């Protein structure tokens, strides 16, 4: 069996790449080892309820008339109408640090500027200068790594402000511990602070179904429960794909969204993967609460990014979970959405993959219960006690993330070393998604589109 293009993984970057290529009438197949699409942004059912693993909030909001915005450029590339994506903007979100020190931000960037002027009046001019640098900076051209912490210290010189600005950007898309590349900072600053947060109407399942239906209507093929075992190589060229079923597919080009370490594993070069293995992973608790909780909790914000440690550091915790910092999200708390019933709450914390991976089954179960209880005590002090309002709860860990996404060590944001042009050591094998450097839902989809535009369509 021969295919012009094989895409490994039906996550958002893989689906976007498939749609972009299928638009031109070319033969393309997406191979997905699981039974549903989405990758990091998917869903599952428990007790008849749909639980999302992504799409609590999308970044890169843009009004339909803003033609140059990444969201609208993406829809044009995919030949989708913005009318197919009813959007709901965040109310506002909060960055909360010790001493009840907080900054609010929303999709109106002036709110963050006013908050910085209120809390850090001596550096507001420096902050505005930083904004002008971000506006003029090209983060997508490959360049040597620049330390964001060093840059922000030069621009702002205020450790508290630097930490408060970094925490949302890091937890929403940084694969590197302690620091981040300045190009990545620029991308995330624009997407979260300047463009803002939103979510589409409906669930992530609805969003995925729109993409899959569009892909199939264009002639694209997708196969679920179809895992790749290896790639057939001759020199620096991929000739085909071996499936775990024993089937072989001859190919012209391959795009892998499985992460660079897993992609190297397909080639037999897994020994070279160590520098590309990410370290940052997370646990997430999902709660369905009684409707009354909406009135008793402090839930005016859409998202609360909190840190209670005097010395903030973005890194793997020494324990299984770091509950001293986290993200509290109310997925139903967006403008124009009807009140959700039951009321949903999601809490995310940095976690240590190795500790979770080494636990046996009884210990693993105990750890989930113990760290869930610790998380509820801490977050209850911030938003109010919600223990008595819990109707149903579930959680997932770095081990869960690795199992269902293929991301080595449960590293949600992939490798700290990004392949910005998507090229590998093989002439016709490309990497899209998190390890290509585009992060967030819109970024992941633009990554898939970019790989098609830059590397595949040029060959036709």
Description:
The chain has 460 residues and is of the alpha/beta class. The protein has helices at residues 12-22, 70-77, 109-119, 124-136, 148-155, 159-171, 182-195, 204-217, 260-267, 293-296, 353-358, 361-383, 398-405, 440-456, and strands at 2-8, 28-31, 43-46, 49-52, 87-89, 93-97, 101-105, 198-200, 221-223, 228-234, 237-243, 248-256, 281-289, 303-307, 325-329, 343-351, 390-396, 429-431. The strands form four sheets. Strands 1, 2, 9, 10, 11, 12 and 18 form a seven-stranded mixed β-sheet that branches. The protein has a seven-stranded mixed β-sheet with strand order 7-6-14-15-16-13-17, with helices on both faces. Strands 3-4 form a two-stranded antiparallel ribbon. A hairpin with a 3-residue loop joins strand 6 (93-97) and strand 7. The longest helix has 23 residues, at 361-383. The radius of gyration is 22 Å and the shape is globular. The two termini are 20 Å apart. The model has no long low-confidence stretch (mean pLDDT 92).
Characteristics of this structure?
18 strands; alpha/beta; globular; 14 helices; seven-stranded mixed sheet; 460 residues
Architecture blueprint of SSEs:
Layout lengths: L1 E7 L3 H11 L5 E4 L11 E4 L2 E4 L17 H8 L9 E3 L3 E5 L3 E5 L3 H11 L4 H13 L11 H8 L3 H13 L10 H14 L2 E3 L3 H14 L3 E3 L4 E7 L2 E7 L4 E9 L3 H8 L13 E9 L3 H4 L6 E5 L17 E5 L13 E9 L1 H6 L2 H23 L6 E7 L1 H8 L23 E3 L8 H17 L4
Parallel strand pairs: 1-2, 1-12, 2-9, 6-14, 12-18
Antiparallel strand pairs: 3-4, 5-8, 6-7, 10-11, 11-12, 13-16, 13-17, 14-15, 15-16
Helix pairs in contact: 1-8, 1-14, 2-14, 6-7
